[in-house]
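For reproducibility, we list the full input for the 2-acetamido-2-deoxy-beta-D-glucopyranose complex.
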Amino acid sequence: MLHSFTVLLLLLLLLLFCSLFLLPPAEAVDDTYTLPDEHFINCGSKSSVTFGIRSFTGDPFYGKGSKPVQDPKPSGDTPVLYQTARIFRRPSPYKLEMRQNGTYVVRLHFFAFSSSVSLADAVFNVSAQLNASAPLLLLLSNFTMKNSNESTVVKEFLLTIGAGKFLLYFIPSQISCLAFVNAIEVFLAPNGFVPDYATHINLSGIKGNYSGLLSNVLQKAYRINVGGPNITEETDTLMRFWISDDQFLLFPVFTENRQTTYDELKFVQRGANGSTKYIAPESVYGTAKELNSTNSSKKFSNITWRFKVDEHSKHFVRAHFCDFITPSLNYPGLNFCINGNFCQLISPYETINQLSAPFYADFVVDSGKSGNIDISVAPPKDERYQIAFLNGLEIMQLMENSYSSFVPLRPEPKKKILFIIAGSLGLAFAFIIMAVVMIRLVRKKEDAVEIPRLPSSLAFPGWSENDMSTARTVGLGLDLELRIPFAEILQATQDFDSKLFIGEGGFGKVYVGTLHGKKVAVKRREPGYKQGLAEFQTEIMVLSRTRHRNLVSLIGYCDERSEMILVYEFMEKGNLRDNLYDTNGCSKPNGLSWEKRLEICIGSATALHHLHTGSAVKIIHRDVKSTNILLDENYTAKVSDFGISKSSHSDLTLDNTIVKGSVGYLDPEYFMSVELTEKSDVYSFGVVLLEVLCARPAVINSPQKEEVNLADWGLFWLKKGQLEKIIDPSLVDKINPNSFRKFGEIVGKCLEAKGSNRPTMHNVLWDLEYALSLHTGINREDAGESTTNISLQFGLPVLLHLPTSSFPVEENEQSIVGNNGSDTSASEIFSQLKFAGPR
Ligand SMILES: *[C@@H]1O[C@H](CO)[C@@H](O)[C@H](O)[C@H]1NC(C)=O
Ligand SMILES: *[C@@H]1O[C@H](CO)[C@@H](O)[C@H](O)[C@H]1NC(C)=O
Ligand SMILES: *[C@@H]1O[C@H](CO)[C@@H](O)[C@H](O)[C@H]1NC(C)=O
Ligand SMILES: *[C@@H]1O[C@H](CO)[C@@H](O)[C@H](O)[C@H]1NC(C)=O
Ligand SMILES: *[C@@H]1O[C@H](CO)[C@@H](O)[C@H](O)[C@H]1NC(C)=O
Ligand SMILES: *[C@@H]1O[C@H](CO)[C@@H](O)[C@H](O)[C@H]1NC(C)=O
Ligand SMILES: *[C@@H]1O[C@H](CO)[C@@H](O)[C@H](O)[C@H]1NC(C)=O
Ligand SMILES: *[C@@H]1O[C@H](CO)[C@@H](O)[C@H](O)[C@H]1NC(C)=O
Ligand SMILES: *[C@@H]1O[C@H](CO)[C@@H](O)[C@H](O)[C@H]1NC(C)=O
Ligand SMILES: *[C@@H]1O[C@H](CO)[C@@H](O)[C@H](O)[C@H]1NC(C)=O
Ligand SMILES: *[C@@H]1O[C@H](CO)[C@@H](O)[C@H](O)[C@H]1NC(C)=O
Ligand SMILES: *[C@@H]1O[C@H](CO)[C@@H](O)[C@H](O)[C@H]1NC(C)=O
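The corresponding predicted structure, in tokenized form, follows.
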């Protein structure tokens, strides 16, 4: 009975004590600052979520080259904020509007979950741009959570930012092609949060004066609640995390933790010396670690904490004090020591002249070869006061001269859109064409596009019926010897076993099989695919009549029971694109050598030359692209896919009203004029050459307009004479400079705006062989040094100026590929049009 009464009493006392402890502090500080509501961003999510003491709003990201992802199966204790993220495949910025000049806290939250991609694989840099003319500051370099033991990493920076636009770039590395972020905080810190100068302690312990702190980026290294527990985002005034100090103690004995109640604390402003609860909260000042004077063994007459930091760097160190420990102000102060060779007396009496009044001291500290910063507190010389204590400690790295190697292109000044159509009628139809292109693209990005041409009565000047056309020779000229019975095909592919499925294209699914003991690729037309009978017949016609070492060879076909099946020799190494970069557009780490690449280009050029000049029939391929160049086991290039080719033999004019080709490879002149010549193949081949050099797709999503279209991108750098800036990283320093120059020259010529200025495939072939000989050093005796300059003609024959607003396609950032995050607009895909100039 008595026993339970005591327990009850104890409980009550405990409760009383707790309530005292948790009592909200009286508003002691005259500080008009409150934690702002902006910007707290819940990246990758449309909804707001509360985290810490703020609501993180839905992701406002509107740039390109990125998309939201969500943790498919978050564990129960994962905060909602960390269940979504935004991923980046290309350097892309978050753009934030700063209302006010000042020092800002920038915090990035990372939590690596696995969805369609594993965020832990990401390796990336983060850079900040303070204003349009400022260089990019590097905040994080080669950041990854691959080897991190922590599930969550929060990186924090202090930046002094002017009012206006603030850009935060996420820059994936070439290794991973992936960057991500789960949440972003960018908010104004209290006025005077960080001073512009502070006492500087160098390695010899000599005191100096460091000024210009505010023009540096500061990165949080440590934030310690000395003598107390962890303080979390939920309770800190600025949503900081303060970690308990014990793991940093060098000699964990002879110390004891002390604490006081919050309402004991007296936040006073005495000059600039007093602290506020935003500098550090009550929970930091209300706890301290004190030297345990009970054991006054001289051997351990101080408390020392050791912090691992970067070698040879500078750190901003802020020590927090609050003397609720000494009984009276007679205490002369404690010795605050840095790295064992600098000590300064910190006197609460002189600094703040009150007991239990929080204050702090700032230093800039050099770290040496050891990469350690040691902080100690020791009692004063006066033997009567064996007291030393510390309440809190913050260490922030000064990131001096840390600039990003990635430099975004300046946005082009808004210029008038040049479009080469005469008359307003033409304009109207240009809209229609664009609209159709966009609709098509929404359906299938990778496929060849078809663009219906206008009825000839309404055709633009210069449009004429072309004498060549796609074959639609139903039942005509199909080589019966190549016919293969359906039963044999079923046998070869084990009834189209899904295990033998290797890919699909515009025509249907492709299986690997064994026919008469030979490995074959079997392409079977399936309902729902765009290409059909016409393509089937064209393919058979072309390949049965034209055989060449660099053309894929057709073994046979099957048209039984309304099947449309094509059987080819099997190409061991797949298509050229897959040998250059992966599905994310990341170049292969150990890609093909330059020599191999040139040989592949030469092989493909040989094939195209043969097609263009073949004696009996001249053929325009019309769909030259890296996926239509296949490689056998020796990397011999074999051009394939003649489904939409045109031959001079065919005489039907059924689809003369249609522009065909693939996005990113399509000759803009052909697109405008609908007059197909073999020079359109030369243009597309020029894009393939760039792809081979840069190992990136012909079209990508990118916030940089210039970069979207590989042809534009290549010409952009070629014109600057800096094509080397964009080459495949695995080729850097591995190309003979003369060979490289020659190659750039070939690319420039192939991508000439006017077809008539482009070389023939024969010339291209010749030049490529020369580039190869320059690289390998094996000279062809008849190859004379060509000194032609790369002369790119950017002069634009302008027939019509349109104000930006009257041409919605150009400026519209609307997505054309649905909402899966790939949102390149049609205008960018066809931005080459600006260069086109048919007359
Ligand atoms: C920010 O600072 C710049 C230059 O120091 C000044 O011109 C501008 O008026 C300031 N803007 C605000 C909003 O304080
Ligand atoms: C842009 O930032 C740089 C570097 O911080 C600064 O020197 C410059 O004054 C800023 N310019 C404007 C217009 O704010
Ligand atoms: C980051 O990675 C790049 C490429 O792997 C390397 O060149 C660079 O030295 C690394 N930088 C740092 C600071 O580790
Ligand atoms: C992660 O933990 C392991 C074992 O606990 C340790 O050996 C390793 O150093 C830690 N890695 C990091 C980056 O802290
Ligand atoms: C990231 O920063 C490092 C410098 O620390 C640099 O070497 C590297 O090239 C940068 N990576 C990218 C993709 O810009
Ligand atoms: C520290 O500063 C003093 C005075 O400026 C100088 O003599 C000394 O060489 C410096 N020590 C180091 C390690 O830089
Ligand atoms: C340090 O430098 C700043 C600016 O250069 C100056 O205003 C300040 O008085 C200096 N402090 C000391 C203690 O010399
Ligand atoms: C304090 O935080 C650190 C780092 O997150 C963690 O390792 C530690 O367990 C926490 N301590 C307590 C008492 O929760
Ligand atoms: C202080 O040291 C004495 C003697 O070593 C020990 O008995 C006492 O428990 C210590 N106090 C604390 C709070 O650790
Ligand atoms: C003080 O510390 C020394 C060294 O560890 C130890 O030998 C001694 O017993 C301690 N004294 C007390 C009173 O605990
Ligand atoms: C702190 O005490 C340790 C152990 O006695 C000693 O090695 C060190 O020099 C002292 N540091 C300071 C700054 O007094
Ligand atoms: C602030 O602190 C310094 C050093 O601790 C002291 O010299 C100065 O008098 C203090 N200022 C005020 C207004 O108390």
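The CA atoms of residues 89 and 178 lie 5 Å apart. The domain at 197-399 is CATH 2.60.120.430 (Jelly Rolls). Both points were considered when choosing residues for closer inspection.
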